[in-house]
Every structure is written in structure tokens, then in C-alpha cells.
Amino acid sequence: MRSALVIGTGLIGTSVALALSARGVRVHLEDRDPEQVRTAAALGAGTEAPPDGPVDLAVVSVPPALTAPVLADAVRREAARGYLDVASVKGRPRRELADLGCDTTRYLGSHPMAGRERSGPLAATAELFEGRPWVLTPTAGTDTEVLNLALELVALCRAVPVVMDADAHDRAVALVSHTPQLLSSLVAARLAEAGEAAVRLCGQGIRDVTRIAASDPAMWVDILSANPGPVADVLAEVAADLDETVRALRALESADEHKRAGGAAGIEAVLRRGNAGRARVPGKHGAAPAAYETVAVLISDRPGELARIFADAGRAGVNVEDVRIEHATGQQAGLVQLMVQPAVAPVLTAALRERGWSIRQ
């Protein structure tokens, strides 16, 4: 691939353009908002100048409702040899493109499974897709050259290609992406009118659950409007589970010992089902989740403290597999949770204590 046209210079489009430009591809940028194009170009994502002729690949990065019309326009003006979109739903754009009378053999739907809570070109980064799954949804009619261009794009962005049927993809993202967004927002909404005393008790658990609730509502309305059925199906199942859980909790309030036992069994069942589902979430490098040991270290909020603790772990010959920081409300301190292989946890604990760190059990 020598040249590309990126149509839509938001977070995803600009990140694609930055990755391609960094690897020697000449990238042309388009957007209905000229200011976004100028910003993306200033970041080094490509040029505002239109291409002299058809580029190798056109990448359409616009909201799902606009994907088909924008693709159709690019096909009509013969902007590229191949066309690809990065919308978060795949079945609807393909069907709409066919309804518009476009030749879909030179089109391939795709979806990089990466993003951030922030939007716009200023949030973009060339590293956004590294190591992340990038779904490709070719059909029997997809031109081989277009599939090869799509695979090259994924490789240049250092992502991991995953081939799926378009409708299967939409059902999958309804479960692993779209429904979690709504549930996060629903939990966060409980905080909007909560008392100050309750909010001050917020810990890492509520921060984890509500992190993605900071996402742009307008963007999510576009996404959910393009995939409402599968999301509603998942939410209906969650609603049924919630109804059962509410009944179990009410039973725990009962004076009847038998009802309380049934309520406890119901709560335990849902928690164990959660354990089983969580265990299926891929861990480091996409492998099965590993059982890490956590070494919790008290750390002050001063420049260089994180660098120092990682350097001390390195001197001890210990590889930190994962890390989390739990901030202490109202204090200039927090806990750094270092996840390591169980066999080396005692080694790390001893080494950090020797270097003056305060270990918390």
C-alpha cells in the first residue's frame, strides 16, 4: 500500500491515518469539518490536499448512519481501488450499500476493537490499535485484492485480524461492547443525585464499573441506533437476571429461614455465573486469564514514584504482569497493585520492603 484516503478525521480515522503515515503510506484526509482535517494534518496524520487519482485504499470512518452514503459517494467518484469502513456495526452498512446500487465486491466491512473515552483528532494516537483485535467481514464476493489491502492495513496498524460474519459480529459487540456501555451509564446515573457522603465513599470498584460512562452520548446514540435489536436482546436477558436477583435479595430480608436460604443460594448462583464468565475474558497477550498474585504497595503522589517502584521491581528480576492504582480519597497517596506470577510474589515483597516501600496485605 502506497496511498490511502481517510474519510472522517475523528479518533479512529485520525489514529488510522497516523499509523499509516508513520509507516510510509501517503495519506489524504477528508472530513465535512475542515477544522478537524486541519487538526489531523497538523498532528502528522496526512495531507489536506486531494489525491491526483485513485488511491490504493479508502478508509471510511464516520458514524454508522452515515457510513453507507459516504462509501457510496467514494465509490461513485472512483476514489480508490478498494474501500473499507471502520464502523462499529457491520450488517447494516453492507445492506444499505447494496440498496444504493453499489458494487460491493470492492468493499470490505471492518471494525477495530479499540477506542477511548475521548473523541476527536486530538485524542488520536498511532498506537491505538497495537495488539487489539481488528474484525474483518469479507463475503464470498469480496475481491481478493481488497481483502489483501485490508490485511495490510491491519498489519500496518499492528492490530490482530479476526475474520467474522457481519451479523455474528453485530451480535458479539452487542454483548461485549454496546451493552457494557449502557450498563456503565446506568450505574453512573445513580451517582448523579446521590448524596455527597455516598460519593465520597467511591472506591476502585465504582471507578472500574463507571469508567466508560464518560463516553460521548451523541456518538453512542449513533452506534446503538445502528444495532438496537441485538443490544435489546442482551439487555432483556440481563433484565431477567436482575429480576431474579432482586427477588433473591428481598428473600434475604424475610423472617422465614427457608426463604433466606433460597435468597442466599440465588445470590451465590449469580456471583458464581459471573466468576465463570469473567474467567473467559482473554488475559495478557490474548491467552487464558492467569491467576496472578497481587503485591500492594503504598505510594505517595509525587513525581517519579511510579518509575522508582517499577525500577525496584526490575532490579529484583521480577516482571510486573499488570498494574492498577487505587487512589485514596482526599489524600496525596494511594495503593499500587502489582500483579505478578505467584512464585515471585514473595521475592518482590521482600525486595520492595528492603528498599523502604510500605507493603499492604
Automatic annotation (TrEMBL):
UniProt enzyme class: oxidoreductase
Name this protein carries in UniProt: Prephenate dehydrogenase
PANTHER family xref list: PREPHENATE DEHYDROGENASE, PREPHENATE DEHYDROGENASE [NADP(+)]
Reactions accelerated catalytically: prephenate + NAD(+) = 3-(4-hydroxyphenyl)pyruvate + CO2 + NADH
Pathway per the UniProt entry: Amino-acid biosynthesis; L-tyrosine biosynthesis; (4-hydroxyphenyl)pyruvate from prephenate (NAD(+) route): step 1/1
Top-level lineage group: Bacteria
Pfam families with a match to the protein in the record: PDH_C, PDH_N
Keywords: Amino-acid biosynthesis, Aromatic amino acid biosynthesis, NAD, Oxidoreductase, Tyrosine biosynthesis
Gene Ontology molecular functions: NAD+ binding; prephenate dehydrogenase (NAD+) activity; prephenate dehydrogenase (NADP+) activity
Domain ACT residues, every copy: 294-361
The UniProt record lists the keyword Amino-acid biosynthesis: yes
EC numbers for this chain: 1.3.1.12
Entries under InterPro entries matching the protein: 6-PGluconate_DH-like_C_sf, ACT-like_dom_sf, ACT_dom, NAD(P)-bd_dom_sf, PDH_C, PDH_N, Preph/Arog_dehydrog, Prephen_DH
Lineage, uppermost ranks: Bacteria, Bacillati, Actinomycetota, Actinomycetes, Kitasatosporales
A Gene Ontology BP annotation from the UniProt entry: tyrosine biosynthetic process
SUPFAM superfamilies: 6-phosphogluconate dehydrogenase C-terminal domain-like, ACT-like, NAD(P)-binding Rossmann-fold domains
Species of origin: Streptomyces aidingensis
Gene3D superfamilies listed in its UniProt record: 6-phosphogluconate dehydrogenase C-terminal like domain, NAD(P)-binding Rossmann-like Domain
Family membership: Belongs to the prephenate/arogenate dehydrogenase family.
Residue ranges constituting the Prephenate/arogenate dehydrogenase domain according to the UniProt record: 2-289
